Structure formats: structure tokens, C-alpha cells
Amino acid sequence: MDHLLYKKSMLRVVKLANVALMTLPFAVAWYLCYADALASPYFAKGNWAVIALFAAVYITYGRVYDGFQISLNRISESVTSQSLAVLIADGILFMVTWLLTKYVPAVPPMLAVAVVQIALSAVWCRVAHIWYFKTFPAKRTAILYDQREGMEKLISQYGLGKKFEVVAVDDVESALAKDLRILDGVDVVFLCGIHSHERNVILKRCIAEDVQMYLIPRIGDVLMSGAKRMHMFHLPILRVERYDPAPEYVFAKRTVDLLIAGFALLVLSPVMLAVAAAIKATDGGPVFYKQRRLTKDGAAFDVLKFRSMRVDAEKDGVARLSTGEHDDRITPVGRVIRKYRLDELPQLLNILAGQMSLVGPRPERPEIAAQYEQELPEFALRLQAKAGLTGYAQVYGKYNTTPYDKLQLDLMYIANPSIMEDFKIMFATVKILFEAESTEGVEEGSVTAAR
Predict the structure, then answer these.
(1) Which of 41, 75, 239, 404 could connect to 228 by a Cys-Cys bridge, CB 3.0–4.6 Å?
(2) Are the beta carbons of 101 and 39 closer than 8 angstroms?
(3) 204 and 193 in contact (C-beta within 8 Å)?
């Protein structure tokens, strides 16, 4: 067997071991505490089916939260992702057990299972991390850039130095003038914001010489990612067009919006009442805050939020983005509700009214959008789809991700609309509630990134 294939096969085994470790405590609790309590107890096959269901749910959410990406995640990130996945799996199976019994199942055994699973996850993540980087040494890496520099700093900042050993950095014109000798002896190359012609030359060379390529795309590349493959004139054709989802997708998306937003309002109404009371008690000002935002095709609407800033936050009439936790306009209550995204809950009413969707590009203020479009005219392309409560940019970026990069993330979502992707983003949104960096502000005056 090829040595690399053997290593990759072992990686699969290590990941399967994680699934087995997470499933074992549940299986033990099921047999000891729950199996015999069913209204009609199962035979062996039925019990195994329940255990297999747990494993399937855990794998599904583990993938949603990127819990199995040993090489790209810090140990703490993997533990957080797997903990969320296992807690959701435990919760779903607890509800299944409830449906199969005549009374509410015992809660302590399932809580004990969760504690053991999280502890096992921490051990697995640590051991797997050590094993991975001993088995897969850092790849010799070259970085080529055009208008975006600093990839080597990002590799260090995100703790990926063990995966990518940067041995060469150059601008694309210089590298091409040297006949791409920078690729000699490297395993990986990062292309950062390079134009399509130069990118294609490098791509062909990488494929020919078995060099793995990571590409930070330009806007045109992202738009092309949604191209439909077809055949015409006996030729391969790629069709690219404006966002035009299928009618069944639009109907399904609206149905999901109504069902989930309605259910969420019902369940979260006590929390919303408590937040409203806390805001009113702080300074006696209004509980809600309306702000003009843009949605599909540039239509304007008033987004509804819990007020998190002073009443006079924009008394001079100038629209400003928050600069994060150091913004002195934010009230004490506002800091708490922003941290846990509670200020966004009233937007469920915007969703029911059809002004927003659960998933889509976040709605921007007309004044801020106009500022961005002065330097980044393509920013208006976000308005192809209805604005959302959460979106691709919120899940995979963070608050201070540049407008250029947020635009690319949103366009990646718009290019490939699907209900499954919507659900994946909704579930992934839960994870960012536990990540402090996703609530950071932006530097005052920051508008666009290098293009």
C-alpha cells in the first residue's frame, strides 16, 4: 500500500475512534438506565439501532462544527466543536427516549454521560493532535501574492505553523519572471488575490508537479464558483447568471423561516421579556431600536433590535459601526446582550414579516453600504438575496472581517443556494456564541481590504 494512502487510512481510523469514544458512554447509559424503561422494550437489534442513531447524529453535527479537523483546529477549538456536537446528540436522543417511554426519562444518567464524553473528547483531541503532527510533518510551503500580503502572519496567528512550514514568499510577477522556481521542492503553495491569467499558469504547473494549491479568491472567482455545468454545441459550457433560485427552494426557505421564527419567538419570549425589562430599568429609554437597512434588490426596511447603546449614540446623525467592547456608547446591559446576540432576537419579527430570512447576507445600513461601494462597487452584489439573521460571513468570518472578505463569503453562499446549506449555517451559528472573537468590533474608519 502507498505510504501516504496508509497514513490517510490511519487518520480515518483515528476519527472513527473518536466516534466510538463518544458513543460508548451513551451505549452504557442506554443499556443500564433507559432500554428497559421503554413502553415496549427493544430486542438487541432495536437497541443497536438507537445507539447507531446517536453515532449518526454525532457525526453529522461533528462535521457541521468542524470537530474532526485535527490539522486546522486548535485543541481547544476541537474540544468546543465536539462538545457542542455531543451535547446536541445527547439532547436529541434524550427526546427520542422520552417519546419511547411513558414518562420523562431520568436526567442524571444523561448528564453524567455528557460529562464523560466531554472529558474523553479533551483526551482524544490532545492525543490525536500529537499523533497527527508526528505522522504528518509540516509541509514545505510557498506563498505567492498580488495585492494581498501577510499570509505567513495568518499562518502563525492561527497556530498552523505545524501544518505549513513557510520556506518562500514572493510576489507573482517576480515568481513568474523566475519561471516559478519558487515551486521547486515545496509541497504547498498559497495564492493570495492573484488575477486569473497568472493563477491559471500557476495552477497548471502545480497539478503537473503535484504541488497542493490553496487559493484566496478574487470576487470573479467566487462568482464563477456558482457556474452551472452544461453541454452545448458539443462543447463544455459554464453558465453564470444572477442569483435565481428554484421556486421550490424559495417556497421551502420561506416555510422554514415561518416555522422556526414562530417557534423561536414562542420559546424565547420569557428571555425577551427579561431583556426588555433590564433595558428599561437601566436608563428608562426605549426598549427597541429601529434602524434602516437594505435587503434584496436594495429594498429598505426597518430592522428591529433590542437597544444596546445610549439613546443619543448617534445624536450627530452620522452612521458609525461599533468598535467593539471599548465603544463607550454601549450600555452595561447592551454589553451583555451583544455578547450573547440577544439584541438580535426582535429580528424574528422581521423574518415573520418577510423582510428578512433566517439565513442570508446580513442587512447593511444604506449610509455604510454607500461608503463601502465608493471603494468596492461590487459590494452591491450582496443584495441579490434577501437579508438574513445569520449568514455565511457570520459563521466563517467575524465581526471585524473586512467588508471585501465579508462580500466574498456572502457571494459564496449566494452562488450555491440550498436548504441543506441553510440548515448547516443555522446550526453552525450556535458555535459562534462561544467564540469571543466573533463579537469584536472594527477599527474606526476601516472600510475595505486590499483587493
Answers:
(1) 239
(2) yes
(3) no
> How far is C-alpha 156 from the geometric centre of its chain's CA atoms?
21
Cell of 378: 461590487
Q: C-alpha angle 433/435/440, rounded to 5°?
A: 100
Instruction: Report the distance separating Cα 293 and Cα 370, nearest Å.
Output: 12
What does pTM read for this prediction? 0.78
Concatenated DSSP letters for 320-351? ----STT-TTB-HHHHHHHHTTGGGTTHHHHH
C-alpha cell at 27: 451505549
* pLDDT tens digits, one per residue of 241-252: 888 888 999 999
Q: In the numeric block, which cell numbers belong to residue 385?
A: 438575496
Radius of gyration, CA atoms only, the chain = 25
Q: How many whole angstroms separate alpha carbon 144 and alpha carbon 297?
A: 37
How far apart CA 104 and CA 102 sit, in angstroms, is 7
Tally of CA atoms within 13 A in the half-sphere of 201 that contains its CB: 13
Spell out, as residue ranges, where the chain has pLDDT lower than 70.
1-2, 39, 41-44, 312-328, 398-400, 434-451
Integer Cα distance of 63 and 88 in angstroms: 13
Give CA–CA dist 113/138, Å, rounded.
36
